Every structure is written in structure tokens, then in C-alpha cells.
Amino acid sequence: MTDTPAPDLKPSFRTDVTVELVKHAASDSDVLWAARVSTAGEQSLEELQKDPERSKGLINYLMRDRHGSPFEHNSMTFFISAPIFVFREFMRHRVGWSYNEESGRYRELQPVFYVPGADRKLVQQGRPGKYEFVEGSPEQQELTARVMEDSYRRSYEAYQEMLAAGVAREVARATLPVGLFSSMYATCNARSLMHFLGLRTQHELAKVPSFPQREIEMVGEKMEREWAALMPLTHAAFNTNGRVAP
């Protein structure tokens, strides 16, 4: 038997995603002491007290020549709120990542749903592997919002009806769409984040083109801003060297 569902829950709709850096141990110095242990041994610990700016050339060298392991000795944990379909793409990134997501088995899921904003390109043109997205017409924008919101309302009503009848949450959740918002903690290091950003964001400095879905790119852009503030020299070297993870 599930808890009695709240009778006053009404669907709400969002066009955004949110990313919060909740915990970190990440700085450019972490790259330097990890790299210098190969030649300096215990003396590499001196890098902890030095200004990393004096060694930004080393960071750039490591990035350019793809000596990747020094970029792993750091950690960032993000709290992310986004539609479920974003997380299903996100969790294809496994090396250097840890995830914990809210569970529809153990809590009643809240009726918060994703609807594309006015700036979201709606129309796909071209063939697979060589297509582009272009702006939708006002009529397509109106249709998308209206149809999605109506579908969300009906699916959540079905979910509430099943819960009220005593159906287990883990069964009733099957009526809910992937446009439902979920939340998770995602923990990574700079190297794994760079690999993620190389695939899930578009950027004018990227040597290798990427074609991410816009919604996961929105998450990536917010994560990148947080990371850039923590490790500005590493972030600059990433951009300088074509946004290819070492």
C-alpha cells in the first residue's frame, strides 16, 4: 500500500534546467602536484602552496599532449534538476562518474514537466547524420506546448488515480512520461567532465563537432560555468586545445 496521494497536486511546467555545485575539491593545483610526482616524488607536494598561475604552461602541455591522469585528482558534485530524458542520455557517461537519482519506487513523484521554451528550435531538417534544427513557427510552438501540457495532465491524473486505489508507486509510475522532472547528484572529475562537455555541448573552439540535444547541452553549459570558476587554467587549456578531453 502506498501513502495516500496529495489531492491538490497540480501539474506545473518548466522550460529550464537547474545545476547546483554542492560540493567540490577541485583546483588547478591538483593537476600540478599530480603531474609533478613523476619527476619530483614527494617534492611535488610543494605545489599545494604555490600559485598555479606560474605553471599554466605545464597544464597546457598536459592537455595538448593528452596526458590525462593528472586531471582526475579532483572532485565535483552537482545537484541537477532536469527532465528524465536528459538523465537517460547523461547516464551513458559512465567512466569517472557516479550518480544517485530520486526514485519513483520510494517517493511520490511531483507533477513538474518540461515544455520547450520559445527559443528551442523545433524542426529537424535533413537526413540522419547530416541534419539541422531550425526555428518552429508560432503555430508549431503553440501546438507543442498545448499537446505536451495536455498529455502531461492526463498521465499524472492516471498516476494519481492508481495511487489512490492502492497501486504501488513502482507500478503506477509507468504511466508517467520522460518529460517529467527528476533530480540527481552527479559526481565527476575534470577529465570526465571534459569528455562530457566535448560530446554534449557545441562550441566554436571545438576541433571535433558535436550534435547534442539542446536540453542536455543546457545542463552541460551550467556545469561548465561552475567548473571554469574552480579550475580556470584547466578550462582555458581545454578551450585552447580544441575542447578534446585528454
Task: Report what the structure shows.
With 246 residues, the protein is an alpha+beta fold. Helix content is 39%, strand content 19%. The protein has helices spanning 28-40, 56-64, 84-90, 138-164, 169-172, 190-200, 214-230, 232-240; strands at residues 12-14, 18-25, 75-83, 97-101, 112-114, 123-127, 130-134, 181-188. Strand 6 (123-127) and strand 7 (130-134) form a beta hairpin. It is globular, with a radius of gyration of 22 Å.
Number of beta-strand segments: 8
How much helix is in the residues? 25-40%
- Termini separation (Å)? 51 Å
Radius of gyration: 22 Å
Break the fold down into its secondary structure elements and pairings.
Blueprint: E1 12-14, E2 18-25, H1 28-40, H2 56-64, E3 75-83, H3 84-90, E4 97-101, E5 112-114, E6 123-127, E7 130-134, H4 138-164, H5 169-172, E8 181-188, H6 190-200, H7 214-230, H8 232-240
Helix pairs in contact: 2-8, 6-7, 7-8
